[in-house]
């Protein structure tokens, strides 16, 4: 029963898209109460895990691990139903819609998805409805078991002291960095030229001399949709689309091409291909007005003035971030440059080369000079970095690594609570497990109480 969180995580994150060809021979391999587990459930989940390129993260004896995850989930669902925990239909519907949008993005279009699945989107959603309901019920039950668990400083210390000294992690030097980012804007004449180009494309589309997808493949500045002729599948409830772009999509009639609009990415024309409820297939052509050295210089000078005021303590970092930063994601992070583990500390190897050079002669507590760089979308931007702090390379200890230790300690406490809960509840369930899985050591506690048919 060890690593319950891990097994639940594996089985709850893998969603298998219904394919025309699946495992031919199928049978019930386990049952908890009135909840059955099919051999195909396990085989298809493992196959999909591998298809998603996650072969390396599969546990040893994956059939045993996935079966344990399913046994755990079924038990949690049974108890959730017994405790009258409820999942709203709206919540399930929203999750299904989100999953379908993910499939459509993966396969390229709704039509291709339906062709591959051999089913309509509605039928695919119905196939997944019970799966999503059970997963959400299991999540609610697990939360009910562990969410009230807290950790005290004494417990964190006790957790730390029981770690063998030769097993304590070694941490390289880590940096706490914050940044203010500004994006140079093209001058008015360049904007006007780009807008004129887009209206010319619109004219060619509407008089029939050119197709929208043909022009998009040649002229769009969006690398993500260039090969597909500018095509995307959107949903009016998705938060990651630019609001102006999204609202324009839903004002169009099928086949209609919009006037030129401006989003945070540049200028667009949009064509509505088809629409079904909140889902729409659209094409767009994006043009990003080119930035000259003159515009970049203006922003560099502005950020240099901001830096001087920060250094003289005429303003604090938070005020400067809110007033001058125009990168939404950076502002939402409080300007923090986070590490891969989601913490506010980052190692030097996780930084881009330009930032490493910027920090070369910088000390904690200092602000960098403005630096011009190119982001992952190919946009020229300017940033200043605040070097907040740096840790020395060190062996894990309670003073420097309390937050990390606290997180691990509370996860262990939750794990123990789950194990205790299952130890008490497994004997109360009707359980059957096929003899094919009796060699799985990870499910020994389940096998102990399994009724052999």
Commentary on this structure:
The protein contains 16 helices and 14 strands. The chain has three domains: 4-152 and 405-449, Triger factor/SurA peptide-binding fold, CATH 1.10.4030.10; 171-183 and 292-395, Chitinase A, domain 3 (Roll), CATH 3.10.50; 188-287, Roll (Chitinase A, domain 3). The chain has helices at residues 4-13, 39-51, 62-82, 89-107, 110-117, 121-146, 153-161, 188-206, 212-219, 243-249, 293-311, 317-324, 328-332, 353-359, 402-425, 444-449; strands spanning 28-32, 35-38, 170-171, 174-182, 231-235, 261-262, 267-276, 279-287, 346-347, 366-367, 371-374, 380-390, 394-395, 431-433. Mean pLDDT is 88; it is low at 12-16 and 18-24. The strands form four sheets. Strands 4, 9, 10, 11 and 12 form a five-stranded antiparallel β-sheet that branches. The protein has a four-stranded antiparallel β-sheet with strand order 5-8-7-6, with helices on both faces. It has a three-stranded antiparallel β-sheet with strand order 2-1-14. With 453 residues, the protein is an alpha+beta fold. Helix 7 packs across helix 15 (402-425).
